[in-house]
């Protein structure tokens, strides 16, 4: 995560309200337990801020079953990263610029690593907005 970003992971974890935090975890992390995870984070914040990834892991330990701990943690950290870097907004801005940047017979190729990114691109292309 870039130090130049106006938003930090610390701010997401320690200042977002329940709805915003739940949305980040659910939409960007594809986490089924986003509701209870967000509640757990808010409960911890009443005692002390969550300053490290290790502390966040400790707070959410009950959601990390043996054998899947690394996968779930990756989803949590991914969700926070997507929010901090405003990655979905960047994709939307990229797609909006494409009609002006592609030549009439040009082709667009997009590699996505997240289902939300993939959905955005597919919907945009299906809507026919990339072709004049």
UniProtKB/TrEMBL annotation:
- What GO cellular component term, any one, is given? cytoplasm
Under Pfam families, the record lists: Methyltransf_5
**The protein's name:** 16S rRNA (Cytosine(1402)-N(4))-methyltransferase
Query: What family does this chain come from, according to its entry?
Result: Belongs to the methyltransferase superfamily. RsmH family.
Q: Could you list this entry's UniProt keywords, alphabetically sorted.
A: Methyltransferase, S-adenosyl-L-methionine, Transferase
Q: Which organism is it from?
A: marine sediment metagenome
Q: Name one GO molecular function term.
A: rRNA (cytosine-N4-)-methyltransferase activity
Biological process terms from the Gene Ontology for this record are: rRNA base methylation
Q: Membrane-crossing residues?
A: none
Gene3D superfamilies noted in UniProt: Putative methyltransferase TM0872, insert domain, Vaccinia Virus protein VP39
